[in-house]
Amino acid sequence: MKVRKAVFPVAGLGTRSLPATKAIPKEMLPVVDKPLIQYAVEEAKAAGCEQFIFVTGRGKTALEDHFDHAYELEATLERRGKTRELEALKAWLPREGQVVYTRQQEPLGLGHAVLCARDIVGDEPFAVLLPDDIVLSKTPCLQQLTAAHDRTGGSVVAVMDVPRDQTNRYGILQPGGVDGSLTEILGLVEKPDPAVAPSTLSIIGRYVLSAEIWPFLEERKKGAGGEIQLTDAMARLVGRVPFHGLRFEGRRFDCGERLGFLEANVAFGLSRADTGGPLAGIIQNLLPKAAQ
Ligand code: UTP
C-alpha cells in the first residue's frame, strides 16, 4: 500500500539548541534560508505524501504560520511588483486541507508524539520524519525509503554507520541478512552502551512504519531516559512484519546538535548554485593560512 501520510513530531523542547530555541521552535531554525521543517515537508511531498501531520506542542505556532498564507506580506510584495519573490513564497505552500495539526499535551517522548497521530493516520503505512535530521542526497531520503517499501512491504527505516563510541546516542539495530542496501532487522536497542551494542548501524530520523506499530505504542511503556521511545515499539515489530534498514544514499546532518547544525549550513550552502562559489571563497578566507 502506498505511503500517503507523513507525521512530523515537532513537540520537543530543543534544549540542546538553547538559547536559539527559547522563543522559536527548533524546527524553524534555518539552514541557509529555509527552516528545517520546510526541508522535511518538501521531502515528504517529493516522496508522494499527500497529508502532512504535525504533532506540535506549546510555543510552536510559528510552524503553523509558516505553512499558511501571510496576507500582509503577500499584498506588500504584490504592490511593490516583487512577482518572483511572491511566486517563490507561494510555490511550496501545501494545498488547503493537506496540513493537519494535533498537539502532544506533554513531551513524553518520541513514541508518544507519534501515537498522538494515530487517529489521523489510521490503519495504513505512514512515514515519520524528524525535521532536525536533514539529508543532502540526489534522491530525497524518504523517496528512497518508500521505493524500498514498495518492494519489501512492512516497515523500513533509514540507517547509517556511526562510530562505536557513539552508540549510546542512537537507536541501534541488530542486523540480519543483507540484500544490497537493505539489511534485515532482527532487533533494536535504544542508546546501547558501546560495549554491548549489537552493531554500529544507527537509525536516523526517517521511517516508513506499518500500522502494526499502533498497539505497541498504545502500551505507553517508558524506556531509555524515562521516555516513551519509538525504538521500543519498533523493536516489537521484529518477526511480525518484514522489517528492514536501508543504507540510504546521501549525507545526514543532525541539526539538533550545534556542530551538526553548523555543518549542515556549510554543506547545503556549498551545494547550492547561488551560494556555493562565494561561500567556498568565504571559508577559504576565514581559515588560518596553515589550514589551507
Ligand atoms: P529530540 O530527542 O531531538 O528532543 O527529539 P528535543 O526535545 O527536540 O531536543 P533536545 O534533546 O531537548 O535538544 C527528536 C524529535 O522528536 C520530537 C522532537 O520535536 C524532535 O523532532 N519529540 C521529542 C516530540 O515531538 N515529542 C517528545 O516528547 C520528544
**Helicity range:** 25-40%
Overall tally of structural domains: 1
Q: Catalogue the ligands.
A: uridine 5'-triphosphate
- Terminal Cα span: 52 Å
Total E-strand runs: 13
Q: What value does the average pLDDT take?
A: 94
Tell me the name of the CATH homologous superfamily. Answer: Spore Coat Polysaccharide Biosynthesis Protein SpsA, Chain A
Helical stretch count?
A: 11
Q: Overall 3D geometry?
A: globular
Q: Tell me, what is the CATH class?
A: Alpha Beta
Protein described:
The protein is an alpha/beta fold. The chain has a single domain, classed as Spore Coat Polysaccharide Biosynthesis Protein SpsA, Chain A (Alpha-Beta Complex), CATH 3.90.550.10. It is 32% helix and 24% strand. It is built from 11 helices and 13 strands. Helix 10 crosses helix 11. The longest helix is centred in the C-terminal third of the chain and has 14 residues. The structure holds uridine 5'-triphosphate. The site of uridine 5'-triphosphate (UTP) has 22 residues, from helix 5.
